[in-house]
């Protein structure tokens, strides 16, 4: 059974969801739900009993309750252990109306209880207040048919603007603040979307290029292998829907960069969003940081402009003779600058200094 973090558990709190009120109204005017059971806050269809969910609780609740398909639905004994546990949580709110409802639940008086289990091991407890209507006798059959969708709608409503803001922040970060090229592909390898670094990489054409959504490797002989790897990644079902079960398997493919001749790793990961019929493949490719950005970072780390220029040339992996020629310096002068750079950055060697600058540069696109 899924246990929620303490930041979500709010004993005695009830959260109203309009989705629950709207879709359960044909069965009853009052439903109480514990999604995930035991530690989760109670959801209610009555706006007089519950308030708005805090943004922090909503975000955590929505993230932790991504159960996948329902596996079992069963009736629970009114007045049984599950009912008494729910009653105790209502009583903790210290509201007269909730105290009455708690007493009714514990005493098996006018309620129908059901539980729905999901693939991730979580179990929802649903309590319906019986009203003597025509649907009382078969409310369980109706609830079983609608609950998985109704649950998702209610959790999505709770997350509301908070979840939208989180998604927007993540997309903005991927688009603007990473120097890794990120490509989103379908199972056939067609390009659906990419971030700015991905577009820069494709426009350069030294590793991959884009022809109206059809990708080609810079080395023609590698294109077929690239598409085969994407198809294999899309077929791999390990990990299931995003956020559920084991993490999806990652495939690593090496492609040759036409300009440098280096073979660079491409990470391919299957992404299956709950509710989507088709899997996607996310490709992440490393990108060499811009030399001007390296110089800027080096100056922010305490180097003079001349020393920063030397550091950037070292970071490119050039020999001292090659770097000195580009910088317009004598080799001996370049060596002197290189020693100052290592001393100021407290780096034991050129490789460590280059790694430190590359890592700093990969953190984001500072202006």
TrEMBL record:
Name this protein carries in UniProt: LuxR C-terminal-related transcriptional regulator
Coiled coil: none
Location of the HTH luxR-type domain: 300-357
InterPro entries, per the entry: Sig_transdc_resp-reg_C-effctor, Tscrpt_reg_LuxR_C, WH-like_DNA-bd_sf
Highest taxon above the source species: Bacteria
Pfam families: GerE
């Amino acid at each position: 059974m899924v246990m929620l973090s303490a930041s979500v558990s709010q004993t005695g709190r009830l959260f109203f969801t309009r989705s629950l009120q709207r879709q359960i109204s044909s069965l009853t005017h009052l439903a109480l739900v514990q999604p995930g059971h035991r530690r989760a806050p109670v959801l209610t269809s009555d706006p007089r009993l519950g308030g708005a969910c805090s943004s922090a609780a909503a975000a955590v609740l929505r993230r932790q309750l991504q159960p996948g398909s329902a596996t079992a639905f069963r009736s629970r004994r009114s007045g049984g252990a599950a009912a008494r546990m729910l009653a105790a949580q209502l009583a903790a709110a210290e509201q007269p109306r909730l105290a009455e409802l708690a007493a009714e639940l514990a005493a098996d008086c006018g309620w129908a209880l059901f539980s729905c289990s999901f693939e991730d091991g979580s179990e929802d407890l649903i309590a319906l207040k019986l009203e003597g209507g025509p649907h009382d006798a078969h409310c369980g059959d109706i609830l079983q048919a609608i609950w998985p969708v109704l649950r998702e709608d209610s959790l999505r409503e709770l997350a509301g603007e908070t979840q939208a803001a989180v998604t927007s922040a993540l997309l903005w970060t991927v688009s603007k603040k990473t120097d890794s090229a990120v490509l989103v592909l379908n199972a056939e390898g067609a390009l659906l979307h990419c971030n700015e670094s991905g577009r820069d990489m494709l426009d350069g054409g030294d590793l991959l290029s884009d022809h109206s959504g059809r990708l080609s490797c810079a080395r023609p002989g590698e294109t077929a292998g690239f598409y085969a790897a994407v198809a294999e990644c899309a077929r791999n079902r390990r990990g299931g829907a995003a956020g559920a079960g084991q993490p999806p398997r990652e495939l690593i493919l090496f492609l040759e960069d036409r300009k440098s001749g280096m073979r660079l790793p491409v990470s391919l990961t299957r992404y299956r969003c709950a509710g989507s019929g088709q899997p996607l493949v996310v490709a992440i490719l490393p990108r060499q940081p811009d030399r001007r950005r390296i110089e800027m970072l080096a100056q922010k780390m305490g180097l003079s402009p001349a020393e920063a220029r030397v550091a950037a040339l070292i970071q490119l992996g050039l020999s001292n003779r090659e770097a000195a020629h580009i910088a317009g310096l004598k080799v001996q002068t370049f060596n002197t600058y290189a020693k100052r750079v290592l001393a100021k950055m407290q780096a034991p060697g050129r490789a460590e200094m280059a790694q430190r600058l590359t890592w700093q540069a990969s953190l984001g696109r500072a202006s």
